[in-house]
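Notebook p. 47: complex prediction with nicotinamide-adenine-dinucleotide.
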Amino acid sequence: MKVLVAGGAGYIGTHTCVELIQAGYEVIIADNLCNSKMDAVYRTEQIIGQKIPFYLVNISVKSEIEPVFMENKIDGIIHFAGLKAVGESVEQPIEYYQNNLNCTLMLCEMMKKYNVKKMVFSSSATVYGDNEVPFTEDMPLLPATNPYGESKVIGERILQDFIVAHPDYAVSLLRYFNPIGAHESGLIGEDPEGIPSNLMPYISQVASGKLSKLKIFGNDYPTSDGTGVRDYIHVVDLAKGHVKAIEQLEKNAGVYIYNLGTGRGTSVLELVTTFEKVNQVKVPYQIVGRRAGDIAECYAGVEKAKNELCWAAEKNVEDMCRDTWRWQCYSIK
Ligand code: NAD
Ligand code: UFG
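Predicted complex, structure tokens below:
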């Protein structure tokens, strides 16, 4: 089976390419490198020991993406392409809606025209909003608090409507919790531009001395130690979830929705102390006020993915901290 990995040069995309190829899939990447580097593709090729066909294209532009479908007989798409910074999406809502929704719409158009019947879509736990934990797939979604989150809610809706009109097609909506960690080779991982806004890259840059101190956003939440709780999932486990999802779509039609998380919540302070302990480093921090838009707790109900996809996360928070640090030390300049 030939899979087009849209946005495949990015953080989750590169890890998924490794797992797909190791599971025997043929992979093609389409990416405009707006938030990634060609070097990540070369490193992915180094891990698997083979070249990956790469198209430098804007997926939302028909004249750029259509040749990919004309030149290849694509059987399925894994769609990672999108902008993902929550804060930036509040400042640039139109750019976020335009890019994220147009990528999804254009890929649907190509699916119809080139008879590609399978798509796995990157959604997010953000679609649950501030619901009761654990978040389960059958919960009604709450309105998103930012344009990024709303682009995921609308993206899910577009794909559900697409399947109503094309019931012989198949779509999997994967709601990721908080992906962190890196490939254990140390060759690929997350390398955000500028000052990171997510917790793990921030911790790792404080540990390396690149940043001086972590600011912990609030210690007055109704959680065990007052700091925010999230369901951190190792990016390699997440990547393996995509292989299971595409496998399921090979045999089935319709819409499938799964949480990809561990089902376990970890507080900010727990993540900091685990990182310090497993890597033998110091992460100085200071407690500051809450960050606007943050919720107290977020973790996944994982039964559905376990029962229907036969997938469960295997790596723990220690593994995530160790692998992030290896990547930070050996690969980030
Ligand atoms: P990433 O930014 O590393 O990867 C996204 C890739 O898409 C990048 O390589 C970027 O260059 C590419 N891209 C964006 N717009 C494009 C366009 N118009 N044409 C071609 N390529 C384009 O992000 P990631 O962390 O790997 O996330 C992948 C997907 O998962 C995104 O859709 C993101 O919203 C979603 N997601 C991520 C997280 C997370 O915390 N990392 C959580 C939930 C959901
Ligand atoms: N945090 C800090 N200091 C920081 C950064 C984060 O204390 O410098 C705290 C946050 O307040 C939160 C936790 O660390 O309690 C995790 O924050 P992240 O920014 O790493 O992640 P979020 O849960 O806020 O958001 C992530 C993705 C979103 C996605 C969401 C739900 O960034 O794209 O998970 O899946 F929508």
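Notes: The pocket of UFG (ligand 2) is lined by residues 84, 86, 124-126, 149, 176-178, 197-199, 202, 214-217, 228, 230, 268, 291, 294 (CB under 6 Å). The CA atoms of residues 128 and 141 lie 5 Å apart.
Next step: compare against the earlier run before touching the bench.
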